[in-house]
Specification:
Elements: H1 7-23, E1 29-34, E2 39-44, H2 51-66, E3 100-104, E4 110-117, H3 121-141, H4 144-147
Antiparallel strand pairs: 1-2, 1-4, 3-4
Helix pairs in contact: 1-3
Length: about 150
Protein backbone atom coordinates (compact mmCIF):
# COMPACT_ATOMS: atom_id res chain seq x y z
CA UNK A 1 0.00 0.00 0.00
CA UNK A 2 1.28 3.46 -0.87
CA UNK A 3 1.59 6.24 1.64
CA UNK A 4 -1.59 8.14 2.28
CA UNK A 5 -2.66 11.10 4.36
CA UNK A 6 -3.59 10.48 8.00
CA UNK A 7 -6.82 11.54 9.67
CA UNK A 8 -4.91 13.86 12.01
CA UNK A 9 -3.29 15.57 9.03
CA UNK A 10 -6.63 15.82 7.22
CA UNK A 11 -8.09 17.61 10.24
CA UNK A 12 -5.23 20.14 10.23
CA UNK A 13 -5.77 20.86 6.54
CA UNK A 14 -9.51 21.27 7.02
CA UNK A 15 -8.89 23.64 9.94
CA UNK A 16 -6.66 25.83 7.75
CA UNK A 17 -9.23 25.91 4.96
CA UNK A 18 -12.06 26.64 7.38
CA UNK A 19 -10.15 29.63 8.77
CA UNK A 20 -9.84 31.01 5.23
CA UNK A 21 -13.54 30.41 4.54
CA UNK A 22 -14.37 32.33 7.72
CA UNK A 23 -12.07 35.19 6.64
CA UNK A 24 -13.95 35.57 3.37
CA UNK A 25 -17.27 35.02 5.16
CA UNK A 26 -18.37 32.09 3.01
CA UNK A 27 -19.44 28.79 4.61
CA UNK A 28 -17.91 25.84 2.78
CA UNK A 29 -17.79 22.09 2.70
CA UNK A 30 -14.22 20.84 2.88
CA UNK A 31 -13.17 17.27 2.04
CA UNK A 32 -9.91 15.37 2.20
CA UNK A 33 -9.41 12.00 0.55
CA UNK A 34 -6.64 9.44 0.52
CA UNK A 35 -4.50 8.69 -2.53
CA UNK A 36 -7.29 6.57 -4.04
CA UNK A 37 -9.93 9.28 -3.68
CA UNK A 38 -11.67 7.66 -0.71
CA UNK A 39 -12.89 10.05 1.98
CA UNK A 40 -10.63 10.56 5.02
CA UNK A 41 -12.46 13.53 6.55
CA UNK A 42 -15.09 16.08 5.63
CA UNK A 43 -16.53 19.13 7.36
CA UNK A 44 -19.66 21.09 6.51
CA UNK A 45 -19.56 24.55 8.01
CA UNK A 46 -22.79 25.99 9.41
CA UNK A 47 -25.03 27.24 6.60
CA UNK A 48 -22.94 25.64 3.83
CA UNK A 49 -25.02 24.34 0.94
CA UNK A 50 -26.16 20.74 1.13
CA UNK A 51 -25.23 20.16 -2.53
CA UNK A 52 -21.66 21.10 -1.66
CA UNK A 53 -21.25 17.93 0.41
CA UNK A 54 -21.01 15.68 -2.64
CA UNK A 55 -19.39 18.34 -4.84
CA UNK A 56 -16.48 18.86 -2.41
CA UNK A 57 -15.97 15.11 -2.05
CA UNK A 58 -16.07 14.66 -5.83
CA UNK A 59 -13.59 17.48 -6.40
CA UNK A 60 -11.14 15.73 -4.09
CA UNK A 61 -11.90 12.39 -5.76
CA UNK A 62 -11.26 13.86 -9.20
CA UNK A 63 -7.92 15.34 -8.16
CA UNK A 64 -6.80 12.04 -6.62
CA UNK A 65 -8.04 9.93 -9.51
CA UNK A 66 -6.50 12.08 -12.25
CA UNK A 67 -3.52 13.62 -10.38
CA UNK A 68 -4.54 17.13 -11.39
CA UNK A 69 -6.22 20.21 -9.94
CA UNK A 70 -9.83 20.27 -11.11
CA UNK A 71 -9.60 23.76 -12.63
CA UNK A 72 -7.05 22.41 -15.11
CA UNK A 73 -9.77 20.14 -16.54
CA UNK A 74 -12.16 22.97 -17.47
CA UNK A 75 -10.76 23.89 -20.89
CA UNK A 76 -9.84 20.36 -22.07
CA UNK A 77 -13.41 19.19 -21.30
CA UNK A 78 -15.14 21.92 -23.32
CA UNK A 79 -16.97 20.93 -26.53
CA UNK A 80 -14.52 20.20 -29.32
CA UNK A 81 -11.57 19.60 -27.01
CA UNK A 82 -9.84 16.29 -26.28
CA UNK A 83 -11.57 15.56 -22.95
CA UNK A 84 -15.05 16.72 -23.93
CA UNK A 85 -17.61 14.83 -21.85
CA UNK A 86 -15.12 13.87 -19.14
CA UNK A 87 -17.50 15.08 -16.42
CA UNK A 88 -20.08 12.52 -17.55
CA UNK A 89 -17.75 9.59 -16.84
CA UNK A 90 -16.91 7.64 -13.69
CA UNK A 91 -20.55 7.55 -12.55
CA UNK A 92 -20.71 11.36 -12.62
CA UNK A 93 -17.98 11.80 -9.98
CA UNK A 94 -15.59 13.79 -12.19
CA UNK A 95 -15.66 17.56 -11.56
CA UNK A 96 -14.16 19.89 -14.18
CA UNK A 97 -14.18 23.23 -12.36
CA UNK A 98 -11.95 24.62 -9.62
CA UNK A 99 -11.74 23.67 -5.98
CA UNK A 100 -10.00 20.28 -6.06
CA UNK A 101 -6.25 19.74 -5.62
CA UNK A 102 -4.05 16.67 -5.32
CA UNK A 103 -1.77 16.52 -2.28
CA UNK A 104 1.71 15.45 -3.30
CA UNK A 105 4.57 14.05 -1.25
CA UNK A 106 8.20 15.11 -1.63
CA UNK A 107 8.57 12.78 -4.64
CA UNK A 108 5.55 14.23 -6.44
CA UNK A 109 3.34 11.21 -5.75
CA UNK A 110 -0.33 11.73 -4.84
CA UNK A 111 -0.94 10.86 -1.18
CA UNK A 112 -4.33 12.51 -0.86
CA UNK A 113 -6.54 15.21 -2.30
CA UNK A 114 -8.45 18.26 -1.18
CA UNK A 115 -11.87 19.45 -2.31
CA UNK A 116 -13.86 22.55 -1.40
CA UNK A 117 -17.33 23.66 -2.44
CA UNK A 118 -19.76 26.33 -1.33
CA UNK A 119 -18.90 29.56 -3.08
CA UNK A 120 -17.97 30.88 -6.48
CA UNK A 121 -15.27 28.77 -8.13
CA UNK A 122 -12.62 31.37 -7.28
CA UNK A 123 -13.67 31.26 -3.61
CA UNK A 124 -13.58 27.47 -3.58
CA UNK A 125 -10.08 27.57 -5.05
CA UNK A 126 -8.91 30.19 -2.54
CA UNK A 127 -10.14 28.17 0.42
CA UNK A 128 -8.72 24.92 -1.00
CA UNK A 129 -5.38 26.61 -1.60
CA UNK A 130 -5.24 27.47 2.12
CA UNK A 131 -5.48 23.76 2.88
CA UNK A 132 -2.86 22.91 0.27
CA UNK A 133 -0.54 25.57 1.71
CA UNK A 134 -0.95 23.99 5.15
CA UNK A 135 -0.08 20.60 3.63
CA UNK A 136 3.12 22.05 2.20
CA UNK A 137 4.00 23.57 5.60
CA UNK A 138 3.49 20.21 7.29
CA UNK A 139 5.69 18.48 4.71
CA UNK A 140 8.44 20.99 5.46
CA UNK A 141 8.19 20.74 9.26
CA UNK A 142 7.01 17.21 10.11
CA UNK A 143 8.44 13.76 9.52
CA UNK A 144 6.72 11.78 6.75
CA UNK A 145 5.39 9.35 9.37
CA UNK A 146 3.69 12.23 11.16
CA UNK A 147 1.60 13.24 8.13
CA UNK A 148 1.24 9.97 6.20
CA UNK A 149 0.84 6.30 6.95
Amino acid sequence: MSDSITLDTAKKLIDAAERRAEEIDNPMVIAVTNDEGNLVAQRRMDDAWLASVSIARNKAYTSAALDIPTHELAEPSEPGNSLYGLQTTDEGRIVVFGGGYPLLDEDGDVVGAFGVSGGAVEQDMEVAEAGVARWEELLDTETPQAVMH
